[in-house]
Here is the input.
Amino acid sequence: MADTPDALIPVTVVVCLAPRSVRELELQLPAGATVADALRASGVDVVQPTDAAAAEETLAGLHCGIWGRKVALTQRLVPLDRVEVYRPLQVDPKHARRERFTLQGKRGSGLFAKRKADTAKGGSSGA
Here is the structure.
């Protein structure tokens, strides 16, 4: 298939605007379209503010990726790309882990936390 200017490529845009709320949109975009073009074409509310200046500012503040790899908004799309819009983290993962560790204590975490009482500390008890 030749890449002619009027050729359309299939692209998926995935947006998670709220926890447990994912929108997946299948789009047909012209060859040479960028991630920003896909977001504009998706019509998602977070990307469509009322005026053009606010729309560009909103687009610049988004974190996007293609198949889990972070990319710039100027990245060109290829057929069957999956454009993902990422939300900012609400809690720092390192901080959350430290708090879980504090609540569970030293004995409740780690590799051998659920070890049976009759097993040896050094490893396997087999011959």
Q: What stands out?
A: Residues 35 and 53 are 18 Å apart (CA to CA). The chain has a mean pLDDT of 76. Strands lie at 8-18, 21-30, 63-66, 69-71, 81-86.
